[in-house]
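Hi X.,

You mentioned you wanted examples for the new student's onboarding notes, showing what a folding record looks like when two proteins sit in one file. Here is a clean example. The first protein comes first, with its sequence line followed by its structure tokens.
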Amino acid sequence: MYHLINLLFKLFIESGATLYGLGLYFSEFLELKPEIFYSLGQNEQFFSQLHHLSLDVISDFNIENLAALLRVLAKNATKINTLELEEFYSDYEPQFFHSLIQAIIYIIKSQDQLRLFSVAGGDFPANFHGIISALESQKNSLQEVIIDSCGYSTEFEILKSCKNLETIRIRYCNTKLLKLLDCKISSLEISDCPLDVQTIIIILKKTGSLLQRLKLEVSDDEIWEESLILGALKSFFSNITFLNITNIGFSTQLIELIGNLQSLQFLTLRFINDIPEEELKIRVMQFAKILPSALQYLELRDVWLSSYINILLNHCKAPLKKLLIDHLDNEKNSKALIEFCMRNKALSYVGVNRNLNLNDNFIKEVGAYVTLVSCEYIVVNC
């Protein structure tokens, strides 16, 4: 296998090709021969336009081989704007992985303008051996940082000095890491982290009116003081354009908040349903009526909502372009959707569950007014 990979790699290099993206996933089956490094030295243009580099650093194999390749990259590829480190572990033996760590640091420091940096831990690492600290060299260009499954490290303090940082995404990390956020950013994602509500409110207050896009994805078993979050959003973020919140109650406070967000264009909600049926009908109606006039995208994919989609559509005046509702499989809902399409000429797509068995008559009837697609094809993320 590795003979074939070496042959193909050499052919690409010597053909005069120029790479724009590269994913390196080393294993025991891959070892680059010395002639590959010679060819790279003779064809510097191969890496000269590289913009996207993804690196799996889990490998226990051929570390020196990989480090050697990264050193060539650092020398010839100075236009990388996206660097992704995957499967990063903290228990590397320093003497064994020193050359690899230093090569990664060299790559970071040698870039003209690194804009996106992502690190995904394999065991919630808290020791990054200077890799995160190396981002100081990119403090004037770094715009987005993604931290996934990582523990707390003081190295992340360097993010506070990144002058143009606009987006931070923190996934599956502990609360202590959240407390490092002291940046005025426009996009914030916090997914599947233990929610210290007071910490999040402090973060939200610090970002102020600059925050335009917010995603709070809470695990199903998480209990959180949502009323405090909603109160903070109402007080500080009237100009927000994108909002995604999961595991939240369908409360009158939430409805009031949505009604106040007149700049809101994209809305995704996952509800906890603990409301009596008659009261739920009233709230769905209220929710539909207060949806902002700027709203283009609405994603409500809870199964229980399928019984109330007709109420939502019958009272919605928002000029939606995309609607994701998962379930749309009865005459009552299809009639409401057709009538909504006739009132709202802007609606282009309706996303439904890919496993939903829609009969041909239903597809033909509704398809005359709007395009039905699987939700994953039109979903919009923060």
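Then the second protein repeats the pattern, sequence line and then tokens:
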Amino acid sequence: MDFVATLWNAGAFMLGYLLPFLFVLTIVVFVHELGHFLVARWCGVDVKVFSIGFGRELFGFNDKHGTRWRFALVPLGGYVKFSGDADAASAGTDSAEIETMTAQQRERSFPAQSIGERAAIVAAGPIANFLLAIFIFAASVYVFGKPVLTPRVDQVVAGSAAERAGLLSGDLVVSIDGRPIGSFADMQRAISTRPNETLSMVVDRAGAMVTLPVTPALVEQSTPVGKQRIGVLGVQASRQASDWTTQQFGLVESAKLGVTETWFVVERTYDYLAKLVSGRESVDQLSGPIRIAQVSGLVASNGGLLGLLNLAAILSVSIGLMNLFPVPMLDGGHLMFYALEALRGRPLSERAQEIGFKLGLGLVLMLMLFVTWNDLVHVRSLL
């Protein structure tokens, strides 16, 4: 019976957590690498390998251009290897390979391209991640519409920031700090991101416009990705069915909403990092593969396919931003080297680049170890 129970638990883990996680991660990684791949092809660069995952190849095929498309054993990332690259991370030039190339092959190698072309190829990965997020958010509201709850106050919690500000039951929130509020979700976003800040809130009170100074209270909440410090007013949303509507949008409006939603994720990410540096946020929210898998499972069970796609959009923005950090080994590190090459009129020495890539690798590995430890501590706290 113990053996059967073990098999059952393993199967439940696979279906409940691992498969949703791999689904989300594979989409994000594939689109990121596809960005590199397509711009490289457009620039006339030969692509040797397009890999989803690392390590031993599980299966793959060669296309008519000679690119090896492969799925590898460890599906926690991917890479595109260009002609002339020393390795999958483009950490230098393979001089031995370059020497054996014909003049035509050398022209189609990655190191032979101009600074602008190399920068475009490298930047295409993160840009593709942002475009994926915009597409998913836009397609979601275009196909399914956007559920909107009128930003009407149903009840005010006693002793809350809302009560101190003078909010009353029945108030309809019109704007916060001059920003129009069209839904209860808009109000939550405006409030949650600015704890302990005094905001100017305009409400419609029985037809009269009333301006109130509100200061959201700072509250620490436990979530699947860790503890989050957010601003809270202390109001309950309207429970009237008539206050719920589903807005439909055309293609242009959906695209605008996709851009707006993607930019919101970017803003929240940078805001978190700034507060992390200043000590106003906790490192508890830094998550690795284990916690992302946990969140993927929860989203799959509660939100289904649409929920997973929206999670993929959020993760895609995060991956795009992370890759733009000026750390060697990441896309941002390559762009930093190209910027220095453009300023100096010549590339950094191979020795300097080698040292930079080693330092970058060390930083990336330390971050991976840290977030994995964070994940294990978080999972242990749930047991």
